[in-house]
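Input for the complex:
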Amino acid sequence: GEDVEQSLFLSVREGDSSVINCTYTDSSSTYLYWYKQEPGAGLQLLTYIFSNMDMKQDQRLTVLLNKKDKHLSLRIADTQTGDSAIYFCAEIGTGTASKLTFGTGTRLQVTL
Amino acid sequence: NAGVTQTPKFQVLKTGQSMTLQCAQDMNHEYMSWYRQDPGMGLRLIHYSVGAGITDQGEVPNGYNVSRSTTEDFPLRLLSAAPSQTSVYFCASRGIAKNIQYFGAGTRLSVL
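Predicted:
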């Protein structure tokens, strides 16, 4: 079945850029997503990219998609302490019954 | 704008007890799903539904039942709770036309 992989932990200094990486196996992925989960909270959709795009920028967030290598990344510019959270990569295939497959999540720790 | 509403937020059960986790959405979404979140394992799909009267199993369905009698509601039933079902449960919904999945705030369940 489909698989999505992420590293478990990333630590950055406040003000630096963070890059969270994700790889996936489903070649029929249509959308790829980044969700943010703060402690004790649900999942908040941060951004998403359609599979025919290779980049999407939204304020401090930049998503890069390398479809050939099945690699997705999320760059957060000028990382703040409020960005500390778990970030989940997810993908969905084609069809109305397509299921969202999540990675294990990357815990981002922002230090002063 | 209620979105996806889950109740209860917290629950403690004894082994062998049964209970129902409630999920309701007010966005007229066709697709609803239940996930469980465990440390280091991301979100795993339990059951999903593509419309009223239609349900199907996800990745980890054992020990759980679902039904979808209306578009709005998608309850998850634990028939005989086990300690292995201690987890955080998330309900989600999305429309068929737009692949944006919205999540509830979660139910934190402990089985003793």
